[in-house]
Amino acid sequence: MSLFRQAFLVLTALLCASQTVAQTLPAAPTLAAKSWLLLEIGSGQTLAAEKADERLDPASLTKLMTAYLTFAALRQKTLGLDQTLPVSEKAWRTGGSKMFVRVNHQVPVDDLIKGVVVQSGNDACVVLAEGIGGSEENFAHMMNRAAERLGMKNSNFRNATGLPDPQHYSTARDLSILAAALIRDFPEEYRRYYSIKEFSYNNIKQPNRNRLLWLDPSVDGMKTGYTKAAGYCLISSAQRDQRRLLSVVLGTDADATRTRESKKLLDWGFAAFAVVPLYTKEQTASALRVWKGAQNEVKAGFAHDIAVSVPRDMADKLKAEIVPHQPLLAPIAAGQQIATLKLSLDGKAYGEQPVLALEAVPPAGIFGRALDSVRLWFN
Questions:
Q1: Cβ contacts of 148 within 8 Å, gap of 6 or more
Q2: Quick check: 334 and 354 in contact, CB under 8 A?
Q3: What is the pLDDT of residues 51-107, one digit of tens each?
Q4: What is the per-residue pLDDT across 172-188, written as a single tens digit (0 to 9) for each?
Q5: Is residue 244 a contact partner of residue 237, using CB atoms and an 8 Å limit?
Q6: Which residues is 32 bridged to in the sheet?
Q7: Which residues are known to be catalytic?
Q8: Can you list the alpha helix ranges (DSSP code H) found in the chain?
Q9: Which of 58, 170, 173, 347 could form a disulfide with 52 if both were Cys (CB 3.0 to 4.6 A apart)?
Q10: Which residue in 144, 122, 138, 134 sits closest to 79, CA to CA?
Q11: d(Cα 239, Cα 227) in Å, to the nearest integer?
């Protein structure tokens, strides 16, 4: 199993807590928005949501994917921070919010990223898209392939900017997956760029449109969006006492509304829930019986730290049980899912996590496999 697949499983396994515990969970606030979702980054749990799978115009929230692919290109060394990219006439003419790059000039990639993240520059997005993908159209195909890999099931990208297009859409849930992946996969880049409050380019200073950066010191990102069709949107992330929450608020009626409603949602999540740590990365959570293997047991655990968010007054009612896949037959590869961690809260189902093999188990010899076949027959 690839490291990407492991990370994806751990991140998404608890995105939706079972509806069977809905009556025991704190009542979420009512928001003046078309759609919204609150995600606990550490556990991957959705703490509350409203119309989270409704397809909507993502506007400039699209630029999270543009940034994600830019950071990936930097990591793959197909792009460099000090490298300069040319400004095409198409990029220069792109409407909407701008970084104000000049046609036929060369712009450092580091400045372009700030232009995208801080200034929400559509022109900067097109320059990066053309530099990475060759054309914005090809870059859009790259965006869609990345969305598919991340598990964004209800998104389609037609451009790098978020400018309106009937076939350009996403959902609150998909955008939470994208934003969480950016924070998880590129933590240094996230810290470097997303908390910048203002940036000057071409002698034009522009503030970050995310007002929460000034109003709440725990907020360190992420991105605003606006079109007439989308309304005012905001994805914001905050960290308090080692907990990180991510709120996605789509389709409000004003800049002040998206700010107020996002803060309301974040404050509620931090106040209503607490995190219960269960297992650390690569800790042996259990030793499971293996049949037909060169050894009789395999160490089982997780690729990442496992913690679960629960209502603050219910931490003592959380139960965890590791249920092995039966029969567990060799050969087993390291990273292979071999069991399921089943969680319950106050006796009701509360989600699942994949349990992985922490080591490989090769098959036994002919005699060992034959002996275990007999044992399995009687079992």
A1: none
A2: no
A3: 999 999 999 999 999 999 999 999 999 999 999 999 999 999 999 999 999 999 999
A4: 999 999 999 999 999 99
A5: yes
A6: none
A7: 60, 63, 120
A8: 3-12, 63-75, 89-93, 109-117, 122-133, 136-150, 172-185, 187-193, 212-215, 255-272, 366-378
A9: 173
A10: 134
A11: 29
Please, what's the b/e burial string for 203-218 (b: 16 or more CB within 10 A of its CB; e: otherwise)? eeebebbbbbbeebeb
Dihedral sign for Cα 20, 177, 234, 90, please.
negative
- How many Å apart are CA 165 and CA 53, to the nearest integer? 19
Residues with Cβ within 8 Å of residue 87, at least 6 apart in sequence: 101, 102, 103, 104, 105, 106, 107, 123, 127
| Amino acid at position 153, single letter | K
User: Element (H or E) spanning 231, and its range?
Assistant: strand 231-240
Give 92-141 pLDDT, tens digit per residue: 999 999 999 999 999 999 999 999 999 999 999 999 999 999 999 999 99
**Residue 156 tokens, joined:** 């389609």
The answer to whether 170 and 65 have CB atoms below 8 angstroms apart is no
Give CA–CA dist 330/326, Å, rounded.
12
Instruction: Please tell me whether the overall predicted TM-score, pTM, comes out greater than 0.85 for this model.
Output: yes
The full DSSP string for 94-138 is: --SS-----TT-EEEHHHHHHHHHTT--HHHHHHHHHHHHSSHHH
Is it the case that residue 12 has pLDDT exceeding 50? no
Q: How far apart are the first and last CA of the chain?
A: 30
For the chain, counts of helices (H) and of strands (E):
11, 16
Q: Is 137 left (phi over 0), alpha (psi -120 to 50) or beta?
A: alpha
282 CB-side CA count, 13 A = 2
Whole-angstrom distance, CA of residue 80 vs CA of residue 76: 9
What phi and psi values does residue 299 have, to the nearest 5 degrees? -75, 130
209, two tokens: 């449109």
CB 97 within 8 A of CB 271: no
